[in-house]
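From the pipeline queue, job 12 of 40. The input is one protein chain; the requested action is below.

Action: predict structure.
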Amino acid sequence: MDFVGVYFASLFLGAFALKSMRDYAGKELETRNSKPETALMTKDEVLQVFRDTGALLEGHFILRSGWHSRQFFQCALALQQMPIVEKLGGALAAKVRSLGAVTVVSPAMGGLVIGQEVARQLGVRFIFVEKEEGKLVLRRGFKIAPGEKSLVVEDVVTKGGRVQETIDIVRANKGVVAGVAMVVDRSNGTVDLGVPMFSLLSLKVEAFEADKLPPDLAATPAVKPGSK
C-alpha cells in the first residue's frame, strides 16, 4: 500500500475509533441519567425493613405528639444505610411523582433524610423547616415562591402536628401544598390534613394520652426517642 493509501486508511481507522468512543460515552451518559422505574414496596416489605434494622422498638415511648405508645418506629435506625434510604425513597417518590411538585419540604429532624432522598429521586429542590423558640420556621435563607408547588415529606405521622405546621408555613409564603408523603402512617389513614396523603406503611398503632395510660404502660418507665 502506498503512502496515500496508508494515510487515508489511518484516517478511516481514527474516525471509526473516535465514533466508537463517542457512542460508548453517549450510552454511558444515557445509562447514568436514565431513571429506571422503582418497584413499589408492599406493606410487609416495609415492615420487614424496620424489623431487620432494629427500628421497630417495643416498650413505653412518648411520641412527638405527646401521646404514649408501646411501639415506636425509629426511622433514624432504618435510614442509616444508604441502600435502604434509596429503596424507601424511591418507593415513596414513585407514589407522588404525578403530583408535579417542584420542591420537597420536610420538618427537621425526622423528615430530613427521607425528604432529601425523595427530592433527589424526583429531581426537584429540597428545603426544610426547623424549630426556633419551640415552633417550626423557615430559616437559612430558604424561600418559597408564590404558587410554588410543594410536597411535604415526613418519616412518621401519628397526629400530624408537625406536618400541619409545615403546611401552614408553605401556605403563609403563598406556596401550594400538592400533598404529603410519609414512610409510616401510624393513624392508619385517620389523620386528615386536607391534601392528598401517601405512605409506604399505614397501620393503627395504639396511642394513649398521658393521663389515660393502661396499667402496663403506667408501670413501665417512659422514654422519648424521637425528635425534640
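Job complete. The first strand starts at residue 56 and ends at 62.
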